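Lay summary. Proteins are chains of building blocks that fold into shapes, and those shapes determine what they do. In this project we predict the shape from the chain. Here is one chain we studied, written as its sequence of building blocks.
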Amino acid sequence: MNKPIVIGLITLLGFPILGYFLSYGLDFTQVIAFLKLPSFTIIPIGYGLMFGFSYAFLALLFMDAPIFDSLENRMEHLLKQLKLTLVKGLFLSVCAGVGEELLFRASIQPYLGIWVTSILFVAIHGYLNPWNWRFSLYGLIILPFVILLSYGFEQFGLWFAIMAHTAYDAVLFTSIVSNKDEHC
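And here is the predicted shape, written in a compact code that computers can read:
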């Protein structure tokens, strides 16, 4: 199986399973509550998509700044190794949106709160690097998105966060796949 597909499936299946066990242990009667299926409605989905798309386009403007040109481990370089196609990029966007939000927002955030969970999320992705301040600038661009997404989760629910994350990643992956020869 292809590396992006494996990464996507681990994120889509493994992260929610871990999150479920963190939240409910072995009580399998709470799956519907964990997935928050009753809140799967048009308003949080629409708001999430609008927020994710909007912030992604804003982030792209910042990430195209000349200060990032000399950065060896730009996201474009890291994703180039995966040989992403548009379909694989969109697949990874959905996997990350669903899997990461079920783990971080639905499972970890209730215990650690918005700020700690948001910083942990950005740090785990490698965007807060004290030895590479330029790469940490990615983190400073993404951190407000994650904090706002976390507040949106509190206000609008899980599906807002899933859709915002998916939309954000879809825009970035599509941009990277479309411009991979230009940046890499």
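What the prediction tells us: The chain has one domain: 3-183.
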